[in-house]
């Protein structure tokens, strides 16, 4: 019989941390990569966010809700990078 945890750690911080890293990675790709290579580097950055999310969720050591936390982390990172790449796409279309 396993003993219950007295005060489980909050897991929302790890999910939001991955989103913040995704936003920083998306902005870094936009600043330092040529426009024709951005899609490839954004997918590499998303893969890095996946590995980061896995590391953070494994560090929590809680099996309850692991799949949900991983899904929230990675899908949130995908959404954040999608919005940032949409901005890059619109900036490329608008004459400047």
TL;DR of this structure?
Keywords: Membrane, Transmembrane, Transmembrane helix. 75% of the residues lie in helices and 0% in strands.
Fold and architecture overview:
There is one protein chain. The protein is 75% helix and 0% strand. The protein is mainly α and 96 residues long. It has one domain (13-90). α1 packs antiparallel against α2, α1 packs parallel to α3 and α2 (38-60) packs antiparallel against α3 (66-93). The model has no long low-confidence stretch (mean pLDDT 91). The chain crosses the membrane at residues 12-34, 40-60, 72-94. Keywords: Membrane, Transmembrane, Transmembrane helix.
Average pLDDT score: 91
How much helix, percentage-wise, in residues? over 70%
Beta-strand share of residues: under 5%
Number of helices: 3
Largest sheet: none
Radius of gyration from the CA trace?
A: 17 Å
Ends: how far apart?
66 Å
Low-confidence stretches: none
The number of domains is 1
Shape: elongated
Number of strands: 0
Which structural category do the helix and sheet elements fall into?
mainly alpha
- State the order of secondary-structure elements, H for helix, E for strand: HHH
Keywords: Membrane, Transmembrane, Transmembrane helix
Transmembrane segments: 12-34, 40-60, 72-94
